[in-house]
């Protein structure tokens, strides 16, 4: 059995991050017969760390940040929706959708890792934002999501209010920036091999085979 550590640097409001993960999931399923398994760790990356509390209309945000026209933005959303369907994820984009700050979501995610609830919480946050159009910066909604994956709401509330967790998120993000990660998703295999972006499943299969072979040498 070959075990590959995979560190995933991502944000829960990044559509390519969930597409990239779902493609990775398919790649790992294909490799089961070859006895290649993964130990996955998620790490924070805020796409919009300075985003105001009320968020911003997603179309306006994309236009301001990337200069995309309304037609280009609509086309991109249609493409993402189709890609989501291909990997079994439901994107529900609409004209009123907003982009939010994700610092508090990442506080919960970092804490949840030590409780073995990180994966469930990560998936629930992607679904809450992209499928259910929920405000993932809202503390009440975050507590709801935490409860849905078996996290005690009082404990989650303490994590959300604990400034030391906010500082931990910020310092971790800074470490990734200093390591050269400035876009997500970013996958690091065995702490040495970087795969950037939402790569196609067959590329991930090949990369995982190569990494597993290197570890056996």
UniProtKB/TrEMBL annotation:
Keyword terms, alphabetized: Isomerase
Keyword Membrane: no
DSBA-like thioredoxin domain sequence ranges: 6-208
Coiled-coil region(s): none
Spans through the membrane: none
InterPro entries: DSBA-like_thioredoxin_dom, Thioredoxin-like_sf
Superkingdom as given in the UniProt entry: Bacteria
GO MF annotations, alphabetized: isomerase activity; oxidoreductase activity
Record bears the keyword Aminoacyl-tRNA synthetase: no
Protein name, per record: Predicted dithiol-disulfide isomerase, DsbA family
The organism of origin for this protein: Vibrio xiamenensis
């Amino acid at each position: 059995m070959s075990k590959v550590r995979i560190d995933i640097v991502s944000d829960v409001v990044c559509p390519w991050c969930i597409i990239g993960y779902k493609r990775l999931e398919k790649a790992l399923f294909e490799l089961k017969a070859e006895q290649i398994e993964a130990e996955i760790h998620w790490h924070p990356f805020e796409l919009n760390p300075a985003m105001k509390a009320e968020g911003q209309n997603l179309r306006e945000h994309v236009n301001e940040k990337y200069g995309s026209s309304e037609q280009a933005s609509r086309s991109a959303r249609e493409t993402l929706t189709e890609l989501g369907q291909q990997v079994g994820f439901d994107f529900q984009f609409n004209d009123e959708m907003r982009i939010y700050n994700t610092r508090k979501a990442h506080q919960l995610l970092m804490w949840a890792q030590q409780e073995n609830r990180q994966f469930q919480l990560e998936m629930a946050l992607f679904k809450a934002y992209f499928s259910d159009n929920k405000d993932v910066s809202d503390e009440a909604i975050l507590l709801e999501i935490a409860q849905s994956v078996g996290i005690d709401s009082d404990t989650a509330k303490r994590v959300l209010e604990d400034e030391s967790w906010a500082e931990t998120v910020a310092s971790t993000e800074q470490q990734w920036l200093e390591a050269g990660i400035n876009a997500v998703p970013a996958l690091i295999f065995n702490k040495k091999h970087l795969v950037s972006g939402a790569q196609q499943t067959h590329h991930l299969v090949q990369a995982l085979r190569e990494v597993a072979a290197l570890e056996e040498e």
